[in-house]
Each structure stands twice: as structure tokens, then as C-alpha cells.
């Protein structure tokens, strides 16, 4: 690309960076990223705060180079321009640290990053495509990077944003926490939405991802079918799906096409597939999956809503928090067909979690309890939980203890 334009972009972005607000301190663990020689990779959905986290990390360095590749003036940038970019950087000042935003937009970026790494640069990069980043890193940079996956605000971060103190749990502060949870349950945690309260913002994020990151990048031809599938999955989140049933419902000819479309949506961090717990990997891959959304706010803007969906929204929040905590999670079905929402194995123990908005009806409590108890017999050493909107108690049955926890306490690790 033209050198004068490239230099203009570098200077413009440097000036804009100087005006950027420091933003809310995220709960991401950045200590290792700042102290290791390895490349730091921050990945996550568009507009979840990756650039702000990058800016916060920059405060630890006296000199650095920076470029955000999500700039329309860089549309013609290619691998040959990386050399000229470094010359432009070095004309300004000397530095041994580089920060690159949305670098996956440039084909062949990983070879350039590998060269900088070999030249002893400290490197930070961000990207909005999980597969592109991970596959290229695995190919060219194995063992040379650490990864931070960033999500929209967690509930704890959302309370920080609203200056709510969670250390002193008085009646008033509990009421404030629950009030804010009700907002978080429906509006989600996109930082920029809460900064400006712009309902259209989340719709624009979704459309940008669909058209710029997916349809254009993957050269999806049948745009109508792709959008219809996405809309259907957002509308029916937390439910089981099979590729063959989706094929019939949506009139898409091939189950492979369904699989490819869902993979694309996952790579952009819009939706996630949850596998059924099976000891056989083949059964895991061929069994029905469940679908969850990155954020309740984006789901509620995109989906057709049949009702308030409070139970599903609550379940989705628990799912995303488990992902944020880096748990290897599944859903579980007992031999008699009873379902447990989430299962993960940790410290030689199975953790079995049911999510139920309200268990005040004895029939609901009995149903959720029965599923956990039956699953506990099949998984032996296990801890049992029911996460609710605001009920806390201990249930003892069949020599098992079931911890019933309000979701806000669970989210805040109280």
C-alpha cells in the first residue's frame, strides 16, 4: 500500500490512542502476560473490551509500537507492508514492545509475528476470530504464546462499573446487587452499551460480525439461509439441536452446511455448542448439542422472544461464567433421560449444576433434585448444585447434599 497513507494511519492512531480513556480494570489475569517473554494473545467477540485491555497493558511500558488493523485505510495492507510498517515505527522512536489490534485481518500475519518474536520483541496481539488465531498460532508459534479470552463484562465487572460495593453485604447493598443483576440478566455486559445506553449499538455489533467477519471472510453465498440459522439459534438458545433437524426446519439441503455455519458463528464468539457428556469421543461428536449465546444483551436484540425467558437467560449467564472460569463443561443425560444442565470435572470431583429460576414450587424442586441425584449415581464422586434467582438452602436426600445458591452469590464467589 502507499507509504504516505500507512504513515498517516500510524500517526492518526497514535494521536487517538493518547486521548483514549483508561477504562474499567477488567478481572482478566494479566500478570503473566506482562512478565513472560511469550506472545500475549487477547481474543474475544468484537467490542468486548480487547482494545481497552490492550491500552491498559500499554501503561506498563515507556515505549512501544501500536497499530489497529481494523481500519478501512488498511484494506490493501499485505505481508510485504509489514517491513515498511517497522521502518515507519522506528523513524518515530526505538521500542522493543509491539501491540497489534485485530491482526488476523492480514493474511500471513503469523510469520511476521514469529520474526518479531525471534528478534526479541515483546508482543501483544488481539483478534476476534478464535479459529484463525488458534490455528495459525498452533502452526507457527507453538509454545511461544499465552492466550487471554475476553468476554463482555462479567457480573462482578458490571458491579465495578456501577460502583457497587460487594464487600459489605447489608440489606441495602444486597438490594442494589439484585437490582443490577436484573439489568444484567436482560441487557448483558457489552461495555460500550452500558457507557452510552444505545440500544442500536448491540444490533450494529451483530450486523458487523455477520457481514464483515463471517459472510465476507467465509464467502458465504446463501446469506439468507445463514442469517435465518443464526436467528433461529439465538431464538432457541439453551435448547438441544441436531444438524439433521435444523436442516429440515430451515430448508437447508446439507447437514454439513449447518455444521459449517455453526462453526463460523462459534469462531466469531457469537454462539457456542455444548457437547453431551460421553466417555466416547465419537458419541460426543454425533450426539445432539446445546446452543448458548455469548451475551444475553445480544441474544435479546437478535432473537424472536416468545416470553421473558428468565430461566433460559439465567442458564445462559451460568454457561458464560463457566466459560469465563475456563471450565471444561458438558451437559449430562442420565440413562433414564433426566438432564443435568452442566457437568465439569475438577480436583477429582464431578461438579453437577442445575439452573432453575425459581424452585418455590415443590414439583420444580423435586424435578431438579431427582435429576441431580440420578446423575450423581452415574458419576460417583460429585458435588451437587442448584443455581437459582435468589433462593439459598441446603437439600439433603439419599445421603447427598445439594447446595442451592442464588445466582448473584455464585457469580461473585460469595
Q: How large, in whole angstroms, is the Cα Rg?
A: 23 Å
The average pLDDT score comes to: 94
Strand order of the largest sheet: 9-10-11-12-14-13
Query: How far from one another are the termini?
Result: 54 Å
Task: Report on this structure.
This protein has helices at residues 3-19, 31-35, 50-58, 81-92, 109-118, 130-140, 155-161, 171-187, 191-196, 199-215, 223-235, 243-250, 255-267, 281-286, 296-302, 310-324, 362-379, 407-411, and strands spanning 39-43, 65-68, 97-101, 122-127, 145-149, 240-241, 271-274, 289-293, 330-333, 339-346, 349-355, 382-388, 393-397, 400-406. The protein has 18 helices and 14 strands. The chain has 3 domains: 3-150, Rossmann fold; 156-274 and 281-308, Arc Repressor Mutant, subunit A (Orthogonal Bundle); 330-411, Restriction Endonuclease, CATH 3.40.91. It has a 6-stranded mixed beta sheet. Strands 2-3-4-1-5 form a 5-stranded parallel beta sheet, sandwiched between helices. Helix 8 packs across helix 15 (296-302). It has 414 residues and is of the alpha/beta class. The chain is 47% helix and 18% strand. The longest helix is centred in the last third of the chain and has 18 residues, at 362-379. The mean pLDDT is 94.
Amino acid at each position: 500500500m502507499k507509504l504516505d497513507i500507512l504513515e498517516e494511519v500510524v500517526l492518526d492512531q497514535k494521536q487517538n490512542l493518547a486521548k483514549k480513556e483508561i477504562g474499567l480494570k477488567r478481572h482478566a489475569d494479566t500478570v503473566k502476560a506482562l512478565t513472560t517473554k511469550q506472545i500475549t494473545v487477547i481474543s474475544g467477540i468484537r467490542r468486548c473490551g480487547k482494545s481497552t485491555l490492550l491500552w491498559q497493558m500499554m501503561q506498563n511500558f515507556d515505549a512501544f509500537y501500536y497499530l489497529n488493523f481494523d481500519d478501512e485505510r488498511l484494506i490493501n495492507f499485505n505481508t510485504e507492508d509489514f517491513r515498511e510498517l517497522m521502518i515507519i515505527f522506528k523513524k518515530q522512536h526505538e521500542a522493543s514492545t509491539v501491540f497489534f489490534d485485530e491482526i488476523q485481518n492480514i493474511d500471513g500475519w503469523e510469520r511476521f509475528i514469529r520474526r518479531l518474536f525471534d528478534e526479541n520483541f515483546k508482543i501483544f496481539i488481539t483478534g476476534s476470530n478464535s479459529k484463525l488465531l488458534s490455528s495459525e498460532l498452533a502452526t507457527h508459534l507453538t509454545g511461544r504464546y499465552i492466550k487471554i479470552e475476553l468476554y463482555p463484562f462479567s457480573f462482578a465487572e458490571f458491579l465495578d462499573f456501577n460502583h457497587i460495593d460487594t464487600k459489605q453485604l447489608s440489606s441495602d447493598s444486597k438490594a442494589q446487587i439484585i437490582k443490577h443483576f436484573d439489568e444484567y440478566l436482560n441487557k448483558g455486559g457489552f461495555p460500550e452499551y452500558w457507557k452510552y445506553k444505545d440500544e442500536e449499538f448491540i444490533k450494529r455489533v451483530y450486523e458487523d460480525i455477520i457481514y464483515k467477519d463471517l459472510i465476507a471472510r467465509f464467502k458465504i453465498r446463501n446469506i439468507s439461509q445463514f442469517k435465518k440459522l443464526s436467528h433461529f439459534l439465538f431464538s432457541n438458545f439453551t435448547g438441544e439441536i441436531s444438524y439433521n433437524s435444523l436442516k429440515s426446519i430451515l430448508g437447508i439441503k446439507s447437514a454439513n452446511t449447518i455444521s459449517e455455519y455453526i462453526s463460523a458463528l462459534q469462531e466469531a464468539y457469537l454462539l457456542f455448542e455444548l457437547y453431551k457428556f460421553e466417555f466416547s469421543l465419537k458419541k460426543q461428536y454425533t450426539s445432539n448439542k446445546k446452543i448458548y449465546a455469548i451475551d444475553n444483551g445480544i441474544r435479546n436484540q437478535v432473537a424472536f422472544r416468545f416470553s421473558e425467558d428468565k430461566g433460559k437467560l439465567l442458564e445462559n449467564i451460568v454457561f458464560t461464567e463457566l466459560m469465563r472460569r475456563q471450565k471444561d463443561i458438558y451437559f449430562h443425560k442420565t440413562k433414564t433421560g433426566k438432564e443435568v444442565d452442566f457437568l465439569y470435572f475438577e480436583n477429582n470431583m464431578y461438579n453437577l449444576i442445575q439452573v432453575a429460576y425459581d424452585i418455590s414450587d415443590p414439583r420444580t424442586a423435586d424435578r431438579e433434585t431427582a435429576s441431580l441425584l440420578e446423575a450423581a449415581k452415574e458419576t460417583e464422586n460429585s458435588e451437587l448444585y442448584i443455581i437459582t434467582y435468589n433462593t439459598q438452602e441446603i437439600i439433603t436426600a439419599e445421603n447427598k447434599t445439594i447446595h442451592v445458591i442464588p445466582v448473584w452469590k455464585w457469580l461473585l464467589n460469595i
